[in-house]
Each structure stands twice: as C-alpha cells, then as structure tokens.
Description:
The chain is of the alpha+beta class. The chain has a single domain (5-112), classed as Translation Initiation Factor IF3. It contains two helices and four strands. The protein has helices spanning 34-46, 51-74, and strands at 5-6, 15-31, 79-91, 97-112. A four-stranded mixed β-sheet has the order 1-3-4-2. Strand 3 (79-91) and strand 4 (97-112) form a beta hairpin. It holds the Pfam family YbjQ_1. It comes from Acidiphilium cryptum (strain JF-5).
Amino acid sequence: MNEILVVTVNEVANARIARVVGPVYGTSIRSRTIVGNMLGGIRAIFGGSQEGYIAMVNQTRDEAIAALKAHAASLGANAVIGMRFDSGEFDAGQGQAMNEVTAYGTAVILEAVM
C-alpha cells in the first residue's frame, strides 16, 4: 500500500484535487487496566501530569489515524484532507472507563502540479 498523506488543511501545496472520494474515518477505543486507573487516581490527588493517560490517548490517536489511512486506501484515495479528531470517554461497566478517538476527513486523489 502506498503511503496515504493526511493533512489538517483543505489544500496541499504543489498538488490539485483530481477527485473527491468522500468522507473517511478511523476509530480506536482503549482502556487502562484497573491497576492503571487506580494509580492514576492516586496521582490525581496530588496533581501533576498523568503520563499513563497521555501515553494511552496518544496511542489511541495513532491507531485512529492508521485506521483512517486504511479506510482511505480501501477507497482508492491517496490523501485525506481536513483531518480532525473527535474523542470521548464512556463507562464500560464496573467503573472501567473507555477512551474513544475518531479521526475523520475527506479522502481525495491528489495529482502533482508542475
């Protein structure tokens, strides 16, 4: 699979949109372990950076972008423009919080402009 370009802007320098393929998305859902949640709760009492949560959210975003690229490639696109993130948290039961991140944008076929 060729690399899919993903940008947050709607235009790419030295390229033109040959065809708009359509909307694409990629979603990832993760949770911390019960021990991780407990340790995070203890750290929250004293304040400061929540490194475990930061790492989890960043990994979730990376997975969402990978899924976005796979979706775009499956439709024959070579780029995604206007990429954005949406995220949320929900309770999976028994106090287990799940972090959800969706990356979305518009799949296009870009051609180089000489």
